[in-house]
Design brief:
Length: 313
């Protein structure tokens, strides 16, 4: 199942970013610390690649503390890039991004040369919560739903520090299949764009391989790693009383339970990918995408009308 979600307002956001970036000094991209590779927007990299970038691994308090350092090192190794971990609800750490931006663009300071920063991220990554923490008031709308912010906002964080907030934006085609599942599991994709049961099964498949102990503790199960994905989902449904008539498990309800427990962090501190895993998924996705494109071009070539007088193919 390929998961795709690119509502109309995201086209407008893409256009707004392309127009705004010429006047920007630093681009902040908020990433979900639980999926730092899947939540990095390749379209954003194309639009802003020539600008210094600050990668903020947000929601690090929900992520696996043993995996976050590897992701910070991965991004800090990239040119003209800094990476920090952050919990957007904490005021003191949030102020760190202002200092990080000044390090990336030290020539911008004072009223004559104010710092101009663009902050971007996927939907529901916590961007609005972070901005409200920075300014100490509810300047940005927040909510546990993808796509809350729909308009660009200009926010003054200091006399010489201007921040432009943009709506959460994905990219037109997700070529890494596992990224689609991880984004859906995190809440970055609208609910109408995927089957919750399928996403929950993919999530459980990863969790039982890497976080079986958390599953067993939270859902009071034994030997979770030895169960098939569908058996595990059914066991969770029974344990939580998600039942239909005649003792059948309500798999839809069980899927919602699994994803809500992951999103809220009550299941435990979890990161759904390592830099090495994501690199492998990306290569595989690029190969499949190239194959699909080649087939598409071949079909288009067969359908193209032959010019008058041209020899047959």
């Amino acid at each position: 199942m390929a998961i795709q979600w690119f509502p109309g307002h995201m086209h407008l956001t893409r256009k707004a970013i392309a127009e705004r970036v010429a006047d920007i000094d630093v681009v902040i991209e908020l990433l979900d610390a639980r999926l730092p590779g899947s939540s990095a927007n390749p379209m954003l990299a194309e639009l802003t690649g020539h600008k210094p970038g600050l990668k903020v691994l947000n929601k690090q308090d929900l992520a696996d503390p043993d995996r976050t350092p590897a992701w910070l090192a991965y991004y800090n190794a990239q040119p003209a890039t800094r990476a920090i971990g952050l919990d957007a609800s904490q005021a003191a750490p949030a102020r760190r991004l202002i200092d990080a931006c000044r390090e990336l663009a030290p020539q911008r300071a004072g009223l004559a040369k104010p710092m101009r920063v663009l902050i971007c991220g996927i939907p529901n990554v916590g961007k609005s919560t972070l901005i409200n923490t920075l300014v100490g008031s509810r300047k940005a709308k927040t909510g546990d739903e993808a796509g809350i912010t729909k308009l660009e906002q200009r926010i003054v964080l200091a006399d010489d520090f201007y921040l432009w907030d943009t709506p959460g934006v994905l990219w037109p085609r997700i070529i890494v299949a596992q990224s689609g599942y991880n984004l859906a599991a995190s809440g970055a994709i609208g609910r109408n764009a995927f089957d919750e049961e399928i996403v929950a099964l993919e999530l459980l498949g990863y969790l039982k391989r890497h976080y079986a102990g958390l599953l067993e503790a939270r859902f009071r199960l034994e030997a979770a790693a030895g169960l098939a994905d569908d058996e595990l989902l059914e066991a969770i449904g029974r344990q939580r009383g998600a039942l239909l008539g005649k003792g059948r498990v309500n798999l839809q309800k069980a899927a919602e339970i699994v994803m809500n427990e992951f999103r809220s962090g009550t299941l435990g501190r979890i990161t759904l990918e390592t830099p090495e895993e994501f690199a492998q998924w990306l290569v595989a996705g690029q190969v499949l995408d190239a194959q699909r494109q080649a087939k598409k071009e071949a079909r288009a070539g067969k359908r193209a009308p032959r010019r008058e007088g041209a020899p047959p193919a």
